[in-house]
Fold these 2 entries.
Entry 1:
Amino acid sequence: MGMLVDGVWKDVWYDTKSTKGHFKRTTTSFRNWVTADGAPGPTGDGGFKAEAGRYHLYVSLACPWAHRTLIFRKLKKLDDLISVSVVHPLMLENGWTFKTDDAATGDDLFGLDYLWQVYVKADSAYNGRVTVPVLWDKSQNTIVSNESAEIIRMFNSAFNGLTGDDQDFYPQALHADIEALNDRIYDTVNNGVYKAGFATTQEAYEEALTPLFQSLDWLEEKLSSQRYLCGDVLTEADWRLFTTLVRFDAVYVGHFKCNIRRIADYPALSAYVRSLYHVPGVAETVNIDHIKRHYYGSHKTINPTGIVPVGPELGFLLP
Ligand SMILES: N[C@@H](CCC(=O)N[C@@H](CS)C(=O)NCC(=O)O)C(=O)O
């Protein structure tokens, strides 16, 4: 784990001393948008027109944020338009690497060794963390975006003219509902598990755990009487929740100590994860082996032996 300082790689763990044991996620830095005609999006510069073969996605199969982008690539039929490289599950002193074993592909674009080298290609004086996902533009040779929440919105609509796929996971009429769901779920669930897991004081850990389980209880209640978070319509809010829930029992319960209840203990949440998992194309984006090896193997301050638990059996992934 580390970061780039003026374009130079430094091996440092998260600084929680200055925040009294709390994990604070840094904001992402490449915030341009691919749009149908190349006009500027809500942030950043224009010039990123949706074109077949122009963009490349760097992901980790372990990472819940990158996982969102893989799901949208699949559901929005972008497989043939946007190529993908998968980093190695272990993220150690060199950060994400392009070591090629198992389902890691290496760097298909440049044959580089480390993801930080991709960031330096885009900005030779880059400062900050080197995270996945990364959406790369082969035409301008730069990073379009490294913010998953925005990449999925681009995938949702920018390429529709090329794919003919007009499924909409962010329908206009539901924007306010989706934003409200996203806000709570991001803060207490998606990022909540990280706040608990990366806390370095008892107080900071407990401060994250209480709202996390309040939100899971609230979601269980909600999904007991409706199919999706917005009722009958499957939206991006569901996919954003799914990538955390599908990892929950495998890694967050044990490794991040989010252990008041498991997803398996919530009947409605379990059925919901199972139903989303069985949406055609989604199961092939879920790699429990990478997920377990990444978390248990990469965070040596939390799990110094690096031993990866064999269980649990994940009933919600069964047919
Ligand atoms: N805001 C980013 C967060 C991405 C993120 O934190 N990815 C993690 C992997 S799960 C990462 O690459 N961490 C490396 C680091 O922090 O050094 C997004 O949603 O795209």
Entry 2:
Amino acid sequence: MTVSDPIISARGLGVRFNKGRRRNLRVREMLFFGSKRDPNKTEDSFWPLRDLSFDIRPGEAVGIIGKNGTGKSTLLKMIAGVLIPDEGTVEVHGKVAPLLELSAGFSGDLTGRENVMLVGALHGMSQKTLKAKFDEIVDFAGEQVARSIDSPVRHYSSGMKVRLGFAVIAQLSHPILLVDEVMAVGDAEFRKKCYGTMEKLLAEGRTLVLVSHNEGDLTRFCTRGLYINGGRLTVDGTVQEALDAYKGLVRT
Ligand SMILES: Nc1ncnc2c1ncn2[C@@H]1O[C@H](COP(=O)(O)OP(=O)(O)OP(=O)(O)O)[C@@H](O)[C@H]1O
């Protein structure tokens, strides 16, 4: 791969969901139907995203913009490899640091400390690195988390989970950072820390894909914007062009 080759490449990407229930059959479906879902199950299904094609190059910071429910989070999940597309492909050339869910994949019954070790290890951090970084992670997450670090995470507020999740993921050296609305949850002090961290990671040349409804965050971090409307990618341009389309200033 040369420097200008895409680090993320989507071609004709689409996904189908069944109405009225959250999908929780992923593993079972995969066992029976390979990488595709049950082809007979078409009733009551819909395509939140269809025919998306784009390339993202290393070091780019791209905002995904669109109304509620247009499939922004779904797109990030497909890039992260936790959701399998029903048509098309997404190729990702590099490890992904995902901040997709508010809970950061934490297990409620485990303590904050155990979760940091588990989630860090699942993302490939060695025990040695995790031990060395542990205090820094807890310190980043703030005083409230530090006081509860040996309590089960199910007792944490969503803000506490996000802070601890961000603190762990920010330590990963992975080249691709996927961030879904995480900064919206924190208070002003935490947001300031997040901004500083994101700026540092971008200055290091990481690739960012950011889902946000916050225009300030999008223009602060992203140079490029993908505007998704009606399940299609309708604008792939500067972040301002995508925001203008979102705000209905231009016809798409
Ligand atoms: N697992 C699922 N099963 C069925 N439908 C789903 C599933 N996940 C999401 N959806 C639906 O797919 C559509 C896209 O959801 P998604 O969360 O990706 O939108 P979004 O653009 O991120 O929304 P928001 O801005 O509100 O976060 C929505 O209609 C949502 O209700």
